Amino acid sequence: MAESTSTKSLAIPLTAFAAGAVVALLVGVFGKVHDPTLAGTTTFGFRTVIDMKVVVSVVIGVLAVLQLIGALWLYGKLGIAAPSWLGTAHRISGAVAVVLLVFVAYHCLWALGLESGTLADGEPVSTRTVVHGVLGCAVLGAVVVKVVAVRSRRAPGWFLPVAGGLLFALLIGAVLTSAVWYIGAQGWPGSGGY
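Given the sequence above, the corresponding structure tokens read:
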């Protein structure tokens, strides 16, 4: 009977990882075949879509770090008791991070697409750009996996921390290859570093 329970429990993470991979692949295909508009639907008052995405991506990165700290605290890995409000704050900040992430991903895919090969002027697309695009697609797939992990009561105990760790690692990689790179190269948006 224990083997049946174990197999049944493994079905949840395997299905979640498969669904996440399909989402990442579909997002990548859309980004590749979509004709980028080079404009987003909004800039939230920033000068350009890129400026808006950089600032929002930094916020997402900060929320991701807070999510990691909150999770470690909730699971007793920091050596100090978690306050009663931490679980609610963790869920709310996670939801805000996902909403912002989907918003930025939409603007990335709609305005810029998934670039690879060569640009219209014949210049090769940078490795950083390709890596960022692949990481961005993988992040959206990892969100699917994490949502399943959070909602599942029958999954093995390792599934939630693995799903959270995977999402964190991919998200930080995407932020490092976009917003952090941009700030290093151009300065903070609107600071005159152009």
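The chain has a mean pLDDT of 90. Try to locate this feature in the token string yourself.
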